[in-house]
Specification:
Blueprint: H1 14-25, H2 28-37, E1 40-42, H3 51-70, H4 80-89, H5 94-122, H6 130-152, H7 157-169, H8 177-185, H9 192-224, E2 247-249, H10 250-275, H11 308-316, H12 321-339, H13 344-363, H14 366-379, H15 384-387, H16 400-421, H17 426-444, H18 446-449
Antiparallel strand pairs: 1-2
Helix pairs in contact: 3-5, 4-5, 5-10, 6-7, 6-9, 11-14, 11-16, 11-17, 12-13, 16-17
Length: 467
């Protein structure tokens, strides 16, 4: 096919000519229109739908500030801490770039947690958006890996000992654990080899995977269309133009809303960066301003706040708690057998698996099962599309008491996060164990509780009140 260049009037603006020249060689305008400019979204979006855009903004902030930090950072155990101090004290505006990056890490998780909360409330993980949700969970896992690997780089006391504790957890895995821990560290202790490989993962490997997953997340979203607070499929009611009658173009309608939301976010973000970058030790721990010392263990080692709910589940798994877990496994298997219409073959398989798990719990120590529960507490999110059997996607049309189920889950998650920051005591461990049961109960019992109660009628079209 012959190349045909778009013809424009001789007096056309230079910018228009330049754009036409690019469009003839690269689908720039088409990409803009497909992904945003003429992408039609439901007209009843609320403030919860802002956090996806904010997550993209924070990703850009992290990449840009990270590039400038790498220019002066030294991934060497003898120089890393000093290079961070050099950035803070000697590099022009280095302190600002470093605080933007550290604050951006916490801001990223705040935004992502709120983004996931919206998906839970409005059923954005339900058919036909299962793949969007799976990409989102993969992004969340990448963020956790990125944050963990980056946490060691300042080479402060908490960085060093936090990495030591987390890597040693892999040693609890039977047979391969010690070798796996050694492979992750690259040495018998956290050392220069560990710092170098963590640096490579943080700066190159995971960001490439993360950007790919974000692109896949957006492509999948724009293929099936956005969900909305009513959980109504707007593509099922099309107008003469082929677009949903309850949709509007993202540009300029949501562009203006996003710009306003970004302005508010950047105001809060800037206030934290300039006035409280450590946020009382939650964003940057005070121990991390002390150089790493392999001979002096801090009085209390805890991960950054965004890991603490899962860390709390790990610490809650004691040898005494294993008895409760075994009872829970047997009870859950019995519930599946008695309250489902599965074939007898599958039911027998469920009971067999339950017996094997209970035997494994008796043989393997609690530390291993703590690692397992910590991992499963994140991975179970991926099963959400197949656990929720509710007739209504949105919380708006579910029974009133379903809201309290979500509230209890959210409060439990916050309590687990707070307990993960504090030193463990007998009372705190008991509360964390109760929280762990509630956390897993929310997901594992969802096939039953999500269908219970009297549901409101879901409207045929979205509810929208102009303002």
């Amino acid at each position: 096919m012959a190349f045909v260049e778009k013809k424009l009037p001789a007096d056309a603006p230079v910018l228009q000519k330049g754009l036409a020249w690019v469009d003839d060689r690269f689908p720039l305008t088409k990409l803009w229109n497909d992904q945003w400019g003429k992408y039609y979204a439901p007209k009843n979006f609320n403030i919860f739908y802002l956090f996806g855009s904010l997550a993209a903004l924070v990703l850009v902030i992290q990449i840009v500030t990270g590039i400038f930090l790498v220019m002066n950072y030294k991934p060497d155990a003898n120089l890393a801490f000093a290079s961070v101090e050099y950035i803070m004290r000697e590099v022009p505006w280095g302190w600002l770039v470093r605080y933007m990056h550290s604050t951006g890490a916490s801001a990223f998780f705040i935004v992502v947690y709120l983004h996931m909360t919206r998906a839970l409330l409005y059923g954005s993980y339900r058919k036909p958006r299962e793949l969007i949700w799976l990409f989102g969970v993969a992004i969340f896992l990448c963020l956790m890996g990125e944050a963990f690997f980056g946490y060691l780089l300042p080479w402060g006391q908490m960085s060093y000992w936090g990495a030591q504790v987390i890597v040693n957890l892999f040693g609890a895995i039977p047979f391969i654990g010690p070798d796996l821990s050694l492979w992750i560290r690259g040495d018998y202790v956290v050392s220069d080899a560990t710092l170098n490989r963590f640096f490579a993962f943080h700066v190159i490997a995971i960001p490439l995977v993360l950007i790919g997953l974000v692109v896949a997340h957006l492509i999948a979203l724009h293929e099936v269309g956005s969900n909305n607070p009513d959980g109504v499929e707007v593509k099922e009611n099309l107008g003469p133009d082929g677009h949903g009658v309850d949709t509007i173009p993202s540009h300029p309608y949501y562009t203006t809303k996003d710009i306003f939301g970004v302005s508010v976010f950047l105001t809060i973000f800037s206030a934290v960066v300039f006035f409280a970058p450590e946020m009382g030790g939650y964003f940057l721990e005070y121990n991390n301003f002390v150089p790493a010392n392999s001979l002096q263990t801090p009085a209390h080692i805890a991960p950054v706040w965004y890991f603490t709910p899962f860390y709390s589940i790990l610490r809650a798994t004691t040898s005494q708690f294993m008895m409760a877990l075994m009872v829970g496994v047997v009870a859950y298997a019995a519930l599946i057998v008695l309250k489902t219409r599965l074939s007898s073959l599958i039911k027998n398989g469920v009971m067999a698996i339950a017996v094997v798990v209970v035997i494994a719990m008796l043989v393997l120590d609690a530390k291993f099962w703590g690692v397992v529960l910590m991992g499963v507490s994140v991975l179970i999110l991926a099963a959400m599309p197949w656990l929720d059997y509710s007739p209504a996607k949105s919380i708006r049309y579910r029974p009133e008491w379903h809201k309290y189920v979500y509230i209890v889950f959210g409060v439990t998650f916050v309590i687990l996060g707070y307990l993960g920051i504090l030193p463990p005591t007998e009372g705190r461990t008991l509360v964390a164990q109760i929280g762990t049961i509630i956390y897993f109960g929310f997901f594992l019992l969802m096939p039953w509780w999500s269908t219970m109660g009297t549901f409101k009628k879901v409207p045929d079209r979205v509810t929208f009140h102009p303002h």
